[in-house]
Amino acid sequence: MDNSDRHFYKNQEIILETPQKKFKGYINKIDGGFLHIILYSTVNGGQTPEFGADDYDMDADISLIKNSAVLTLISYGFSKTFLYKPILKSIVKNARNISLELQIADVPSEEREGREFLRVNAVIQFVYEEISLEEFLETKDAYITKPSLTTSVYGIYGLAAPKIFQTVSETDSDAPLNPKIEKLLVAINSKLDVIISLINPEASIFADIKEKQVSISGSGIMWTDADKGLKQGSIIKITMLFPTVPQFIIKALAQAVKISYADNGDTGADAGQNNSSAVSVSCKFIAINEYDRDEIIKFTLEQQRHRIKK
């Protein structure tokens, strides 16, 4: 396929799937209709075990890829998922990764992201900073394995939110609890959570950051802002403050999958050369803890419920 640069970009996160196994990697180079890909881990549920583990058999996975009758290359965009059927041209074993050369033989099929996560428009505060591919590879595991310290306590510890009108103690079914007292206790607890969130040192980084309108889901975020030099494929570390009670902060690594300029609608690689000051940035979360993703999903559902009630 000679127009691969329209669908792919350098450092783009991808999934290579065989009938038996999935692998995670990124595009290292685009050469006409050929993609040079680096695979660095397997995908097992929400985990991404590294190839460098002592008990990992890289030769077995190389043999699996070589002998697979069907390979699927999966590219997750902001609002769609693209699937390709590549032809394997070469495969090389490295110390901690696998290098592939793939030829893309057909046009992609598309899947709507809405089948996975609800997307809503909301107003939040956030800060971000572009990082290198090397920093992404070094830090991604920490973002995936550790929940943000300031995520809602209920999400982190898997606790049920307090029931305002509960009349029976959770620990002793024979001990009734006055609903008015319980309501006061829950209110006090919520106010304490707010106070803690306000004096949290991490929350102070948002003191001079204005709220912005975003489109957000459990898989990504989109916003319009002054052009700060982000390009398709840029990787950022992003910290988001959600206006809930109590407030909570979520950190993630994301990749810019689409750049659009407000005045002419340019997108993709060409958009990076535009001189417009207003740019729409669509990012996909590529390293985020699943507890944190759950908190974002809860936030989007609550936003939708609130709008339906209006």
Key structural traits:
globular; six-stranded antiparallel β-barrel; eight-stranded antiparallel sheet; alpha+beta; 2 domains; single chain; Thrombin, subunit H; Pnp Oxidase, Chain A; 310 residues
Strand numbers in spatial order across the main sheet: 6-7-3-2-1-4-5-8
What's the helix-strand series? EEEHEEEEEEHHHEEEEHEH
CATH architecture of the largest domain: Beta Barrel
Average pLDDT metric: 78
What fraction strand? 35-45%
Number of helical stretches of at least 4 residues: 6
Question: Which stretches are low in confidence, meaning pLDDT under 50 for 5 or more residues running?
Answer: 152-173, 269-273
Helix percent reads 10-25%
Query: How far is the N terminus from the C terminus?
Result: 49 Å
Q: Sheet bearing the most strands, described?
A: 8 strands, antiparallel
Could you give the count of β-strands?
A: 14
Radius of gyration using CA atoms only: 22 Å
Structural class: alpha+beta
Q: CATH topology of the largest domain, what is it called? A: Thrombin, subunit H
Number of domains: 2
Please sum up the structure shown.
This protein has 310 residues and is an alpha+beta fold. It is 24% helix and 35% strand.
Describe this entry's structure for a reader.
The model is unreliable at 152-173 and 269-273 (pLDDT under 50). The N and C termini lie far apart (49 Å). The longest helix is centred in the middle third of the chain and has 21 residues, at 179-199. The protein is built from six helices and 14 strands. The chain has two domains: 4-115, Roll (Pnp Oxidase, Chain A), CATH 2.30.110.70; 120-159 and 204-309, Thrombin, subunit H, CATH 2.40.10. Helices cover 24% and strands 35% of the residues. The chain is of the alpha+beta class and 310 residues long. It has an eight-stranded antiparallel sheet with strand order 6-7-3-2-1-4-5-8, with helices on one face. A hairpin with a 3-residue loop joins strand 4 (72-76) and strand 5.
